[in-house]
Description:
The protein is of the alpha+beta class. The chain has seven helices and six strands; from the N terminus they run H-H-H-E-H-H-E-H-E-E-E-E-H. It has helices at 2-25, 31-61, 65-94, 115-119, 130-139, 152-165, 221-238, and strands spanning 100-102, 146-148, 169-173, 177-183, 190-199, 204-212. Strands 1, 2, 3, 4, 5 and 6 form a six-stranded antiparallel sheet that branches. A hairpin with a 6-residue loop joins strand 4 (177-183) and strand 5. Helix 1 packs antiparallel against helix 2.
Amino acid sequence: MIAWLAVILLLAAAVVMGGSGPAYRMEWISLGEAFTFLRRGAYLAIGAGAVGLVALIVAGFCRRWVPALVGGLVSVAVVGMMIVPLQMMQRSQSVPPIHDITTDLDNPPAFEALATAREAAPNSVDYPGEDTARQQREAYPAIQPIVFEQPLADVMQAAEETAQAQGWEIASVTENKIEATATTRWFGFKDDVVIRLTETDEGVRVDMRSASRFGASDVGTNAARIQAYLEALKSSLRG
C-alpha cells in the first residue's frame, strides 16, 4: 500500500510539474499559476520520495521485495525529476538578474522590425543601460564580437543560415542585420535576437544582442544563446 501510494504521488507530481509549461503556453493558466503548479508539483515529488523511501525500508525489513523495489525506483525517479529545477535554482543564484545581453555594450544593436512586439511586452525595447552592462562585464566576459575576413555578403548568408538552423523565427533580414525570435520549448517564452554586421578595416564584425521579453532575470539563457550562435557561425565560416 505504501509503495503504490508513492507511485500515485509520483505520477501526480509529474503531471502537475510537466503540464505547467504547456498549460501556460496554451494560455489555459497565468504565469503565476504555472509557477504555483511547479512549486506544488515539487512538493508532491518530495512527498513521493519520502513515501517511497519508507516503503523501501519497511518492505525490505519484511522481505517484500516487489514493494521494496517499487519504493526504491520511486525514490530514484524523484531525484531525477528534481535535478533540473535544482540546477536552475543554483544557476539563478550564480548569475546576475539581467535579461538583455549583447556583444557591443557601447552601441548595442537596436531592434527595429521587432520593436512593436517588444513594446507590447513587459521588458523595454531599449537596452537597459550601464548598470546592466556592468553586470554583464563581470558575469560574462567571454561575450565579445567576432571578426571575419570573408566578404560581407558571404558572412551575411552564413549568419542567416545559422540563425535558421537554431530554429528561430526570422522577422527581418537586410543587407547587414537579422532580427529573429527564439521561443523556449517548455513555457514558450519569447526572446528576441538581433545580429548586426559591420565592415571594418580588420574585416566584417558580427555583433549580437539577445533579450527576453519577460522576466528580470534570464538565468543565463541569453548569454548561452549568443555563445552557441557565434560558435556555430564560426564553425560555418572557418570550418
